[in-house]
Design goal:
This is Multidrug-efflux transporter. It comes from Halodesulfovibrio aestuarii. Its main location: membrane. It is a multi-pass membrane protein. It holds the Pfam family MatE. The protein is mainly alpha-helical. It is built from 19 helices and no strands. Helix 2 runs parallel beside helix 9 and helix 17 runs antiparallel to helix 18.
């Protein structure tokens, strides 16, 4: 299906689905990468699994800027293509590649210099300190390449070339699995290096995916010498990129720190705190599978909205936004209904201890009820990203987390119910608040103004 057909037929479910399904597969490969890492680490020993889990989760903070640049990349490039300004789109590609590499190198260097301080802040237990330090060191070494991987995938999504990132993440998943099992456990006749093999599997696999991406970028003539514009142009282009990327990065930081505080609230509950903490972790792992398609619709929304607004079609942007929103919420609600009878069996499978099983099941019940609201807010967040209106995501997501979810979780969890059920109710309440507020903004506010429509002399550089 051609790109032009996708853009000129905003009411087509086919156009949405043809962009969404490769990204659903892409998110499944992401899930498999983490699953294999955790499984192999567990086969080595519990210390390795604990160290890997801690570093993998906190490593997201090091990727915040890459994700933020990726959001700016999708908005700038998709809007430029929609406006027919292909030279400007090409220059944005060169700009985000240079910016990503520079930021990756700087953060990698700072992280390596302060890695002991970072582990101290995390209160890393002595039993796993040396293992965690090794994982952190390897992950920081690969960080510049990881930045290029994330940003190049965003470039392909902005250009509607969604099969390329799907293939690259498939390469990463396959290489990572082989290297994990081979170098981590000594399978396939490989030398067994234990946890060091698991760390190097990440380095090798991400490098492979990044090499593939740049092979396509260069081979297809997407990234060429002329993509790297003069400094005068980059200086005029940076403000819009930062305007989109800065709120996106701030959203990621506040959202992740909000989850850390939520874990602290659960860990300090008056009753059954340990079981609740284990149930929360198990429930979140099961729930993550359900939200993989929602992430795909988030990315699909950002792509299509950027193209429509770049072409100056506000009405069609809103129309296709509603179509994506209805499709995402409808499909995921059907999935939630189908999953409901399997809540307790799934909870028992992943958390076999009776007390933890109960906690995981309660978590899943409330969060599956919230699926229509969660999917709606995720899809609407993608719409705002495509429009460059990430400031709305920042304020609404952050407010939902810090001014609704966390206070209500403490009040219901510690003072009213005095167990984790109060926390899970708070999560549902915050998702209702978040989605309804986002929908109000989408329907009644001028979120289009953040795009580069008719602003080539103001907020966007000329081609």
């Amino acid at each position: 299906m051609s790109n032009s057909k996708q853009i000129t037929d905003p009411t087509s479910y086919k156009a949405i689905w043809n962009l969404a399904w490769p990204q659903i597969l892409m998110m499944m490969f992401h899930f498999l990468i983490g699953f294999v890492d955790v499984w192999v680490a567990g086969q080595i020993n519990s210390n390795v699994q604990a160290a890997l889990g801690m570093i993998s989760q906190t490593f997201l903070f090091f990727l915040v800027i890459a994700i933020a640049i990726g959001n700016g990349c999708v908005a700038g490039i998709s809007q430029s293509i929609g406006a027919g300004l292909h030279k400007r789109a090409a220059r944005y590609i060169g700009l985000v590649v240079l910016l990503g590499l520079t930021c990756g190198l700087i953060i990698s260097g700072l992280g390596l210099c302060g890695r002991h301080i970072f582990l101290g802040i995390l209160q890393t237990p002595e039993d796993i300190y040396s293992i965690a330090l090794y994982f952190l060191k390897i992950y920081l070494l690969i960080l510049p390449v990881y930045y290029l991987f994330v940003i190049s995938n965003a470039v392909f999504r902005a250009k509607m070339m969604v099969f390329v990132p799907m293939r690259s993440i498939a390469i990463v998943a396959l290489v990572n699995a082989i290297a994990d099992l081979g170098f981590g456990l000594g399978w396939f006749g490989f030398p067994e290096f234990g946890y060091k093999g698991v760390a190097w599997a990440t380095l090798i696999s991400v490098s492979g995916g990044t090499i593939y991406n740049f092979w396509v970028l260069v081979g297809k003539g997407i990234l060429v010498k002329n993509s790297f514009a003069p400094w005068r142009w980059m200086r005029s282009a940076l403000p819009y990129l930062i305007k989109v990327a800065a709120p996106a990065g701030g959203t990621q930081v506040l959202w992740h720190t909000g989850y850390i505080v939520l874990f602290a609230i659960v860990a300090s509950l008056p009753y059954n705190a340990v079981e609740a903490l284990a149930g929360l972790a198990a429930g979140m792992r099961i729930e993550s599978l359900l939200f993989l398609p929602a992430f795909a619709f988030n990315m699909t929304a950002s792509i299509l909205i950027g193209h429509f607004l770049g072409a100056g079609n506000k009405g069609e942007a809103k129309r296709v936004g509603l179509r994506i929103l209805g499709t995402a919420c409808g499909l995921m609600s059907i999935v939630a209904i189908g999953f409901w009878p399997f809540i307790e069996p799934m909870a028992k499978f992943l958390a076999p201890e009776a007390g933890v099983t109960i906690q995981a099941a309660v978590y899943l019940k409330y969060n599956i009820i919230s699926i229509p609201f969660t999917v709606a807010s995720m899809t609407l967040g993608g719409i705002m990203t495509g429009a460059g209106a990430t400031i709305y995501n920042f304020w609404i997501y952050s407010s939902a987390s810090w001014f609704v979810r966390l206070p209500v979780a403490y009040i219901l969890g510690h003072l009213v119910f005095k167990d984790a059920e109060g926390v899970y109710i708070a999560m549902l309440v915050s998702q209702v608040f978040q989605s309804t507020t986002m929908f109000y903004i989408f329907m009644h506010r001028d979120w289009y103004r953040f795009s580069m429509i008719k602003r080539k002399n103001a907020t966007a550089p000329a081609a």
